[in-house]
Design brief:
Number of helices: 2
Low-confidence stretches: none
Order of helices and strands: EEEEEEEEHH
Largest sheet: 6 strands, antiparallel
Strand order of the largest sheet: 1-2-3-4-5-8
Radius of gyration: 15 Å
Strand content: 25-35%
Distance between the termini: 49 Å
Shape: globular
Number of strands: 8
Structural class: mainly beta
Bound molecules: zinc ion
Helix content: under 10%
Length: 124
């Protein structure tokens, strides 16, 4: 049997609410890594994808939409520094990050893509 470099819990080229936090474009080469949960009702996943123009991004969710999207050198790799409008940035806060505590504590669909948008992409 040929050994695969892909972990069995990785799903490739799949649908993800993750978009490029800079241009809001669709990502290619998407990967979702299921990290499993302590109990079945916990959704714990890493989502990654590549913007042809802005490179790789990833984020982690634990039963809630992600709070931040990170620029990385490759899927599940190390953080990558980006300079946007002259400002260094490693991560991009999502809409979810700014939800009031009442909403943040309520039960929401972690894959609701409205919460995955970044402040920056909303301005466009
Ligand atoms: Zn982009």
């Amino acid at each position: 049997m040929v050994e695969s470099k892909v972990a069995p819990r990785d799903r490739r080229n799949v649908q993800t609410p993750l978009r490029c936090p800079i241009c809001d474009g669709a990502l290619s080469n998407t990967v979702i890594r299921d990290l499993g949960g302590i109990t079945v009702d916990i959704t714990w996943q890493m989502h990654a994808g590549e913007c042809p123009e802005h490179g790789w991004f990833q984020t982690e969710i634990v039963s809630r939409p992600p709070r931040e999207i990170f620029a990385v050198d490759r899927p599940f790799g190390i953080a990558r520094r980006m300079v946007i409008d002259g400002v260094e940035q490693y991560s991009f806060p999502t809409v979810w990050m700014y939800e009031p505590p009442k909403v943040a504590r309520s039960k929401v669909d972690p894959f609701d893509e409205r919460y995955w948008r970044t402040q920056r992409s909303l301005r466009r």
